[in-house]
Amino acid sequence: AQKVTQAQTEISVVEKEDVTLDCVYETRDTTYYLFWYKQPPSGELVFLIRRNSFDEQNEISGRYSWNFQKSTSSFNFTITASQVVDSAVYFCALSEGDGGFQKLVFGTGTRLLVSP
Amino acid sequence: EAGVAQSPRYKIIEKRQSVAFWCNPISGHATLYWYQQILGQGPKLLIQFQNNGVVDDSQLPKDRFSAERLKGVDSTLKIQPAKLEDSAVYLCASSRKTSGLASQETQYFGPGTRLLVL
Q1: Rounded to an integer, what distance in angstroms lies between the CA atom of residue A61 and that of residue A86?
Q2: How far is A86 from chain B (nearest CA, A)?
Q3: A109 within 8 A of A23, measured Cβ to Cβ
């Protein structure tokens, strides 16, 4: 069965610090997708990135970067020079295709608090 | 492009009462999902539709929860009768059906409905 573990419940940093959010997953499938979502206090989950299991290239988007390592089943997310607006709960999720439809399983989330 | 719309945003009811939530997905998205998010946890899938058909309702408590998507566009999720443990945020999401693997679809979420059962 698929499983996502986000061991960090809450992280507090001061603005401009770098911070890494960890994500470890379990799956028996060879083809799967990994996602990161941001949930600000308003409640809506905002899509950040999708990565497939065959692409281990790291990705950078502005202050955000993602490190995917199949050898350790991890898909970690780093925010460089954090800002107060980055304060939110971040969810890692694993997607498998099962019988022609998607099964998306979320971790328990990491709450990030960025103080000025 | 308009996002996923949900209403109401907040609802407070007494236990044993009934409640309904409404969702309108992104235009053109064939797949619609309902999730339950209990405080401090990640979203958990309740039911998934493709067009107007149910493809996965394995985690829906069918004795009290029901959902429909009659015309393949908007959807309603109902709880009857509500219990205290149903207090949660109910999230609706939609995705565009692709010709490739189902696992690659990106789900886009609405703002959610916060339900408090007293």
Answers
A1: 14
A2: 18
A3: no
Closest residue in A to B113 (Cα) is A43
- pLDDT, tens digit, for every residue of B56-77? 999 999 999 999 998 889 999 9
pLDDT tens figures, A32-53: 999 999 999 988 999 999 998 9
Say whether residue B53 is in contact with chain A using an 8 A CB cutoff.
no
CB pair distance less than 8 Å for A33 and B40: no
- Smallest CA-to-CA distance from A24 within A86, A64, A67, A85 is with A67
Shortest CA distance to A92 belongs to which of A66, A114, A63? A66
Q: How is B83-111 classified by DSSP, letter by letter?
A: -GGG-EEEEEEEE---SS-GGGPPPEE--
User: Nearest CB to B103: which of A4, A37, A95?
Assistant: A95
Which residue out of B55, B90, B103 would a mutagenesis test of the A interface target, given it has the greatest number of A Cβ atoms within 10 Å? B103
φ and ψ at residue B114, rounded to 5 degrees = -90, 115
Question: Which residues, in sequence order, are CB contacts of B72 under 8 Å at separation 6+?
Answer: B30, B49, B51, B52
Q: Are B97 and B28 in contact (CB under 8 A)?
A: no
